[in-house]
């Protein structure tokens, strides 16, 4: 029966912009749409892990605002990065204390980039926090994360919308990208030029996977927020929430997923 269809959701990376994923999840949940599997890169992996660990979207937003994630980063004295992520491990352990994929309420796959072998690696079993740190390890800014004698950086470098772990397993895939670029008529300085170029590159590998998604949610203009603009967390959350509500209103077919799930519960 169609009521048994599995829903997968793939969440892109994008720094603080990834908070919009929480707003999207809240809107989907309010309409009775709950993912059976999650995959994510970078910020999408963090949002997905906390959600799969049993925290609801509003709780996760509160965690992010109260802890101020970025204060846990400290300078790195090395040639490989400017900041170390090791102190972030304690923060993740506070909210994901069992530190394993198997302990999650929803199956999760995390994408990271193996820097030496130049390939994407997907983590979905065993210890979870190291892969989570690796997936969000922005190259050049953070020291690479060592796992089993291999070094990993941000999953978004090679795959910023990891739909592959859901393909062939889930009947329906929802992709969510948090890096939509607004039209820019005036590049003001070298900083904005570099930021825009990086986001264009990230979006290229997102859009190359768009056709694998049955539904693709992309809140418009989110790239105007900086990667570390934590003061805008609530605005970014609300932006994702409103965009998802609008998407649902304009794509009524997605509501079939909620109806089928409700039917399944009644059986």
UniProtKB/TrEMBL annotation:
Coiled coil: none annotated. A motif (GXGXXG) lies at residues 13-18. The keyword Cytoplasm does not apply. The keyword Kinase does not apply. The active site is at residues 42, 154. It comes from the Bacteria. InterPro entries: Acyl_Trfase/lysoPLipase, NTE, PNPLA_dom. A motif (GXSXG) lies at residues 40-44. This is Patatin-like phospholipase family protein. It comes from Fontibacter flavus.
